[in-house]
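Sample entry (172 residues):
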Amino acid sequence: MITTSEFFQLTQWAGIATLIVAVLAIAGFLFKWGVRFQLVGVTGFMAVLTGGLFALSLVPIMRTVVPGAVRFSVIYDNGATQAVIAVPPTITETELDATLRQAASDLFSYGRLGREQDQLNIRARTIIHPELGVSQPLYLGNVKRSLRNREDEQIQIEIFADKFAKLPKSSA
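Predicted structure, serialized as C-alpha cells:
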C-alpha cells in the first residue's frame, strides 16, 4: 500500500507537471496555437489531480489489524446502526472476540446515520446444519460501538458462550 510520504512525492511531481502544462497553455495563448484551449483543460485536470494527491498525502490510509481475527463477510448493513457479519462455524470464542473488534474497526464510518441511537450494533452469525437439508443461522455474539468516535474506548462486546455448544466439533 502506498504511504503518505509516497503520495507527497507524487504530489510534488504532479505539481511540477501541472506548472509545465500551465506554462505551455500561456505560451499557446501568446502564440495563438490551435491547441491552446485543450492545454487549458489539461492544466485544469492536472490541478485537480495534484490536489487529490495532496489530500491523500495528509491522511493515512491505514487499516487497523486486530491480531487473532478471522476473515468475515458483511451480509447485512443498513448504513446506519445495524450490521451482521458471517463467520465460519469453526470459530472459537477468542477468535470471535478479535473478529468483532476487527469488524467494529472496519465498519466504522462518519457517514453512518444514527437517528435514535448513536451506537453501531454488529452481530456475528454462522450457519449450522442440524440435520441433512436444514440450515439454521446461529448468532454467536455482537459488538456495540460509538457512531461518533473512531477511537471508542467504550466498545461493548457480548459473546454468547451457550451458542458455541451448538457448533459442530472440529476434527482437529
